[in-house]
Every structure is written in structure tokens, then in C-alpha cells.
Amino acid sequence: MITEEELARLVERLRHAATDGRAVEVKACEHGVSASLMETVSAFANGSGGLIVLGLAEQTGFSPTPGFRPEAVAESFARQCADRLTPPVRPDIEILEYHGAPVAVAVIEEMPPFDKPCHVTDRGRYHGSYIRVGVGDRRLTTYEVDRLLEERRQPVHDRAVVDEATPADLLDDILDAIVARQRSLHPRIFGTLSRDDSLRALNIIATGADGRPHPTLSGLLVAGNYPQRWFPRLTVTVAYYPGTCKTSGNAVKYLDSRSMAGPIPEILEDALAWVSRNMRVGGVLDGQARRRDAFEYPIDAVREALCNAIMHRDYSPMGQGAQIQVNMYGNRLEIISPGGLYGPVTVDSLGEPGVSATRNRTLAALMETTPFRDGYVAENRGTGYQLITTLLRSGGNGRPEVSDTLSAFSITFRAAHTDRLAPAAAPAAGLLDGMPHPGMPHPDAPHAESRSGMPRPIASPVESRTDTPQPAAPAVGLQDGTQHPDATPTGSWAGTSYYETPQDHAADSLSELERQMLAFIAEHDATRLPQLVAETGRPRSTVTYQINKLLELGLIERTQPARSPRQSYRIRRSA
């Protein structure tokens, strides 16, 4: 309980601020306890708790209320907290002295998660629940009340059957990889189950209202060809803002903005490649005066944060209308996901051993066995935040900054050594989503940011962006007419200069996997991604990466628009 000395210091701070505090409410109570005070009690109980001081008048500079009767007011206040709130609140009330006058100080504890929301009984749960915002009380929205009610039971939105979809909307290569992984992990169980029975046991497929098999939401998210057909906002949007906020003047200004769609492995691959392409790159000198690339953000930390956002976001019907956002600014990178922290996890307990909760258990389990690059999408061992913190510290980014509300959770990475890193190259219009930054290593290669004891970054003149306009040249070599920056005229044909680019010699430096894919595409002409996955035996994300690389090199081309679910590839035809 607060002491009289602490009360005096608290009131002095309120007087200096000339208003109540976020966790403090002051009421004069000249005529007893007002009904509106129960809104404040509800707000404190639904939030992080708070302190209510009865017998001080804010209007007169937080001076004692003349004729204040502390015992009667305290009794009335306690009775209203018990009778007018559901669940009832039991405040800890003490009579203290302030400047020679009595005041009643009530401590309102935060309610356990399974008892929230605390609401004014006669207004009902959806009209009488409040939360503290700033120095005032705001009524909770229907969405926020539903999120609090989820704390009382395990959400199962991720297991919902999508009756409009069929098993044919799932990608066989991802399904086969998941089942194979489960059979290797649990041979006694999945070794005796058929493929279809395994998919049912994993809640990828379930029986719909029509008695037929249909994919679940989790099944579509990890293995659907195009889940956004039914859930158009279950995407990851990315945007790069050159300043420190989204607006410039009276308009929103961004340099690059995309929406990543498809199953989770493809969304994750495309989003990480976008971040790699847009972040700034500098040089570091090791102890032997050798230079190597250093990146503004540790890509492994970005991957971990993005996986967490996808795994733990809110997939309730109301939450399905919001997407995950990745916003890159001149000084920070933030990832925002719908729905706040779940269960016993709080901002203060993030990363603590043993403190973990999973809102979407089915999806989390599937992400552990969904193939990504040469591994799997997620581990789900409750160590993700610790890994993020370690990577950011070793990369010079400081600690992550987190914010949690009932409707959203955000994590922010501060840019590392922004005054020493060169700006990233401006995104080339028409380049395929998912291509990595030119200085970024192959997605299967270890990242320099993951190593401890990184040298400090220094600027590299070669990588610095110049604002000097460059002479235009005909667009050749890259798909969608994108000009290669190193193209130089070497001759002419029919009166038109033609250009020789690095793509003209690209085949000389292809890997064995890339040569295998090119040969297969050449043999079969219109080739789909699942065919290449089956032919190469490599994870879908790795094959996707190689396809993007071959597209950028101008060796193959699409047969359909970029986001078509019927996409296939063929050897690029000469113009």
C-alpha cells in the first residue's frame, strides 16, 4: 500500500502535470461516489491496475475536498465495486492524511486474464467494459472484448473448416514434405497412417458441413496454393518510408510497397527478400583488415519476428480483416500483427524461461514441419524473443522495442549504425518479388549478422547511393523490361543499339541445381513450381528462390501474370 510520503510525491507530480495519470485517478467526491467512477475501476481492472485517490479536487489544483468524509466514501466505493461490477472488484482501501486533511486511497489490482473483461454489470459485457487510454477511460470495442474472452478458453479459429475450398487447393509438395517429416519424427503413429489419414490427424483436412473433406484454415495457410482467394487480408504487406513516419506533408509517401501472398513459406521468403533488398548495406573490417558486407538489420532476427507474427496473430473472423505489416523507415523496422499477446505472456515477461503461450496451436504445430529453405518454418520452442534480442545486440541494433494492446502487437528494431551504412539501392521497377538484395547471401547460407562480436560497420563508397541522374538506356535482359544497371552498348541491329549484359553470360556461372531446373524447363516448356520441386527434391522455398534468380537473369519467363495461381515457366523467348 502507498505511504503518506509517497502520496505527497505522487500528488505533486499530478499538480505539475495538471492532470490525472495513466494509472492514477483523482476524485473530489463532494457528494459521494459518482456512478462514472466504476468505469475507471473497470478500466484499471482490465489493464495493469491503478490507484484511485478519493477526496482531492483536480479543479482546485489537487487540494483536499472540504468536509470530505473518508470512512463513508470508502464504504460506498467498496460496496459499488462489489455490487455494480462483474466480476466484482475488491479494492484495498486505506485512509491517509494529505496536507492535514483525510483522503481515501484505493488500489485496484489487474484482474486475472480468465476473469476479464471486468464490466459495469447493468450495461452488459459489450457496452460496459473499459480500458485506460492516456488519462481517460475508453469503452472496449466488440473486437477487444472478444480477445479478452479468448483468454478463458483455447482459441480454435486456426482449425476452422473452410467449406468453400477443396483438398485440390492444397499443394502436394508441401503436404508430402509435412507428412514425411511427421513419419520421421513419429514413426509409430504416422508410419501406419495413410497420407489422407495423416492429413486429418494433423488437422490439415477435416470434414465439412457437407460431410466431405475440406482444408482447415491452418491447412490452407501452410500449404494452400492461394489462401487469399478466401482470406484476402491474410497477407504480409511491406512498405519502405524514407523518413521517420508514414506521412510527408499532407500525403503518405513510400518508395516501395508490396503485398506478399500465397502459402506461409512463400510469404516468408518474399518478405525476407524484400527486407534484404531495401535495407542499407555497409562494410565491416575484421581484425585482419578484410572487408565484408554488414546489413542494417540482422535478417535472422527479422525472420524470427515475422514467423512469430504469422504464428501468433489473431485469426478470429474479425481479425481476418487485418494483415501483418512490415514497415521500414529511415531509422527503424517495425512488424505489427493483429491481436495482442496471448495467455500469461506480457511485455515484461517476453523471453523469460518457461513463460510461453500459443494462441494458434494447430498452426504452430504445422509450421514446425512445414519446409522452408533447407529446414522448417518455425521451431516453436519459446526461445524466439531471446534469439531476436541476442542477434540485435550483436548487430549493434540495441534491444527490440515492443508494444502490446488488445488489438495489436508490434516489435521495432532500431537501425544499426545508420550514419555509417550506405543507402540501399532503389528498388528496380518490375523486378520480381522475392529477389534478395545484391549483397545478400543465398538464403541457405549462414548470415554474418548471426555471429557474435561483429566488427563495426563502415561506409562503402561503392555502395553509396548517388542522386546524380544517370543516362537512360534501352531496357534489355531482365523480365518486364527492366534495364540491367551494368548494360553497355556493344553494337546495333537493324539500326537499333543492342546491349550486352551480365545475363548474356549468366549460364556460365549457374549452380548444378539451376542447370538441372533449366534443363527440365527446356524439356517440358510450360513447367509449374510443384514439378520442379518433385524433380529436384529440394524444399519449395529453395526452388522458388532459384526461379526468381533465373527470372532476374533473364533465362526463363512466366507464362501467366505474376500472381496467377496457374503460374508456369518456360525458357525465355527472344524478342
UniProtKB/TrEMBL annotation:
Biased composition (Polar residues): 489-500
Residue ranges constituting the Schlafen AlbA-2 domain according to the UniProt record: 23-140
CDD domains linked: HTH_ARSR
Residue ranges, annotated region (Disordered): 429-500
Domain HTH marR-type span(s) in chain numbering: 514-562
PANTHER family: GLPR-RELATED TRANSCRIPTIONAL REPRESSOR, SCHLAFEN ALBA-2 DOMAIN-CONTAINING PROTEIN
Name of the protein in its database record: DNA binding domain-containing protein
Species of the source: Bifidobacterium phasiani
